[in-house]
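Quick note —
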Amino acid sequence: MPAQQAAARIFEAHERRERFAPLPEELAPRSPDEAYAIQDAFVALRAAKLGPIAGYKIALSSPEMRRFVGVDSPQAGMILRSQVRRSPAKVRAADYVRLLVEFEVAVEMGDDLPVADAPFSRERVMQAVGAVMPAIEIADDRDADYSKLSRHPYELIADNGWNEGAVLGEPRRNWKSLDLRQVLGVAKINGKTVGEGLGEAAMGHPFDAVVWIADHLASLNRGLLRGEIVITGSLITSKTVGAGDRIEFSVTGLGKAELAVE
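Predicted structure written out below.
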């Protein structure tokens, strides 16, 4: 199976901390469906060590990033259980090739969104949300050459959106009083503000990003399940960080998430 062969190659490249490179032509995905088949096989290989699926991420949630990579749709990735960390968290720079952080609103599902209910709406998602919190996505672009991504637009899907987990702030269960479109996220590295963004940067509303993930999963005959986490897309451009850095992301009304890199 080409998907299994491609996944094994990606898995081995991660294990050896190799620089990100496109798959050879005979294994490269030629469509999103082929790319997600590779992603499934790659995540299954990682799950043996990192645990089962605990949630999902959205890559390329902004039109600008989609244009840059040369695709017309966001892309989904999976987050594995041992990679979900509670704030304050620590990681080691030496465990990554090139460590990136992104700054997001995370949603914890309080109820299932089953396949049979698709397609979903923001109102339907709201009924199923259990908690909302700030999150710092941990990613590793493995020193990719971004100028070449548009030549291989589905490789990011195959490589699980470069996700290496997330740091979650304290879950807020009484989120209904907040206008999540207008909450302000502020990112700091070593005490210095490096970016600000509103909740609407997440596909217009963080729950619209959850709608997209739930519909995407339904297209694969999977539900979004109670207890799973969705990180809804970065409100601020991603930042490269290294040993000694202290990252903090605060969101109006939701508190903050903190990460130390050692």
